[in-house]
Design goal:
Elements (H helix, E strand, L loop, with lengths): L3 E5 L2 E10 L3 E7 L3 E9 L2 E5 L7 E3 L3 E7 L2 E7 L2 E10 L1 H8 L3 H4 L1 H9 L3 E2 L5 E2 L2 H14 L6 H19 L2 H5 L6 H16 L7 H8 L3 H12 L3 H17 L6 H7 L5 H12 L8
Antiparallel strand pairs: 1-2, 2-9, 3-8, 4-7, 4-9, 5-6, 5-8, 7-10, 7-11
Helix pairs in contact: 7-8, 7-9
């Protein structure tokens, strides 16, 4: 049913987009472990285990979840609508391989679930897909249409997504705490995001941003992460790297020009940052 599948060493990325005119109910059984990051862009999926003590997985349109099931035995219902998903399925070896010796330090409760062979679900109720992951999903869908599979790109994209998941697992207390933002506070954070995009070529500090929109520095950091799912300068690095990648895909540009366009005066510093973010040097795109 997948429109496109990208086969990696130990993982499969599936992109689906099809019209479902009636509910599709599937009785599924699987005796081996199942690790999945599921983005539901359109439609709804509902997995109900036969054993009520196991974890049910329900993901509505615009939501995502990350889960591990030691085995599968239950009913999967796909509800009728235009169904669109991006799904990343992998084995334990794949996750351990990309994080190597750091796996135990950063995997949190997910790593414990693997070790104890107990079900794990990142969100008890699936969460809305944050902006930082929407960008990755858009890139995944676009790159899935290419004739040749760039394994370096796909592995770097998987690392970024799993890093995000693990950071959220280890940040559960902050995620679960309720942060109420007034209309003025939401407008301030939206203005900060606009400023970051406009000043992508220039250096700017959190203090300058806070002063420009009239907000306390600590509150700015907290509220920005609450809305956009990542710290301010992690967000800025991401939009700089995505912009750099977009420019590099065009002909007739050199690394120095690209570095300047995204706010790096030193091309070597840009190359280091680009490689750290994508897993390969910018010249590979050229």
């Amino acid at each position: 049913m997948a429109n496109k599948q990208i086969i990696l060493d130990g993982a499969v990325v599936s992109i689906t987009d099809f019209n479902l005119t009636a509910p599709l109910i599937i009785d599924i059984k699987q005796d081996f472990p199942f690790i999945k990051i599921h983005f539901q862009l359109g439609g709804k999926m509902d997995y109900q285990p036969t054993n009520q003590n196991e974890k049910a997985i329900v993901i509505e349109e615009g939501q995502y979840n990350f889960f591990y099931l030691p085995k599968i035995d239950g009913i999967l219902t796909l509800h009728p609508v235009v169904r669109s998903t991006v799904e990343i399925e992998c084995g334990e070896d794949f996750v351990r391989k990309i994080f190597k010796n750091d796996f135990h330090k950063i995997s949190g409760s997910f790593g414990i679930a693997l070790r104890e062979k107990i079900p794990f679900k990142m969100w008890e109720q699936s969460e809305s897909i944050p902006k930082v992951l929407k960008s990755s999903i858009e890139n995944i869908i676009k790159n899935s249409q290419k004739k040749e599979v760039d394994l370096v790109y796909w592995e770097s994209e998987m690392i970024k997504i799993f890093q995000y998941m693990f950071s959220k697992i280890n940040d559960k207390e902050e995620i679960n705490s309720l942060v109420y933002l007034s209309g003025i506070e939401q407008e301030q954070i939206t203005r900060v995001e606009t400023i970051l995009h406009k000043k992508i070529q220039t250096s700017i500090t959190v203090e300058e941003l806070a002063l420009e929109v009239g907000i306390n520095r600590n509150k700015l950091n907290r509220n920005f992460k609450h809305i956009y799912g990542e710290p301010i300068f992690q967000y800025l690095t991401r939009i700089r790297m995505e912009k750099a990648k977009e420019i590099l895909s065009k002909k007739g540009v050199n690394i120095s020009e690209v570095a300047y366009e995204v706010g790096y005066k030193n091309p070597q510093h840009f190359t280091v940052a680009f490689k750290k973010y994508f897993g390969y040097i910018p010249s590979k795109l050229k």
